[in-house]
Amino acid sequence: xxxxxxxxxxxxxxxxxxxxxxxxxxxxxxxxxxxLAAWDAPYGPDEQWDLRIEEHQAPGPNGPVPVRVYTxxxxxxxxxxxxxxxxxxxxxxxxxxxxxxxDMPEADATSRGVAGRAGAVVVSVDYRLCDEPEALGGRRAxxxxxxxxxxxxxAPVPLQDVLAAVRWTVAEADHLGIDPGRLALGGASAGGxxxxxxxxxLAHEGRxxxxxxxxxxxxxxxxxxxxxxEAAAVADLAAMLRFSLETTRSFTENYLGRPxxxxxxxxxxxxxxxAQLAALPRTYLEADEHDDLRISARRFAEQLxxxxxxxxxxxxxxxxxxxxxxxxxxxxxxTMDRLAEILGEL
Length: 346
Hints:
This is Esterase/lipase. With 346 residues, this protein is of the alpha/beta class. It has a single domain, classed as 3-Layer(aba) Sandwich (Rossmann fold), CATH 3.40.50. It has 12 helices and 8 strands. The protein has an 8-stranded mixed beta sheet with strand order 1-2-4-3-5-6-7-8, with helices on both faces. Helix 7 links the parallel strand 5 and strand 6 (211-215). The termini are far apart.
């Protein structure tokens, strides 16, 4: 029997095994070029899905909100038009309320992957971003056309943009080929915060979405006390992968534009009480194993359970914060698999 020829492709190093190489460095600017290249190397090829992708604008109180709509291409055929309307996911990328756009993998690759897997429509929201604080460089966030010149972007502006995108999605249900009764609202990191806050706001108006899908979200204004297991999972992380007390306070104050003590439940839904949380729909909470923010997800899952909300809490093992931004990462595919399954159950 002939020998199997060797695979010419280099073995892909899992994220867990890439983490130690970053430990000697205190910031991304200090990382040696070869180490940075190895860290950023794709884990596999981009996924390919047959989708129709369209750019739209949702009217909002702060000016138009850009949204990108991902629709399985089969809906363009006459046969598909006769099918029942599809479920829809309104999706919010992360970036600390200061960074991110519709082209980052956490927005684009995730939207493609979920739409393709679920046969669902995904509406990705390009909400307005806050400027960076001076301590982080002071970079001014991009300004969308139609934004009032005097608008200072802090909470609740990004949340208002997300709510505007949800309203537009529902209003355009016939055009989009969706069932507004099968609408899920989701996001990652800071986008997970906005998705949770928008869900809470809609629930209190009596218009809750069918499900809330939150990936490594930040739901409390300051970092909570970790369990021994949670502390051990981040103890050896490089400094730039950590969310220290100082870092979370800086992000929170920059997002709020006011003291942390003035944060409300629609800024950080983890501040809501049991009665306020009881209005929430089915919630999926996924946290990354090597991530300080997993504490917030765990605590919010506990709060939801105490409020009688149906909640599923998952730890995605072997990955650090933001794993949906890693092209070809097997764990990212597993996450998209689960999101698609939930959309199929709505």
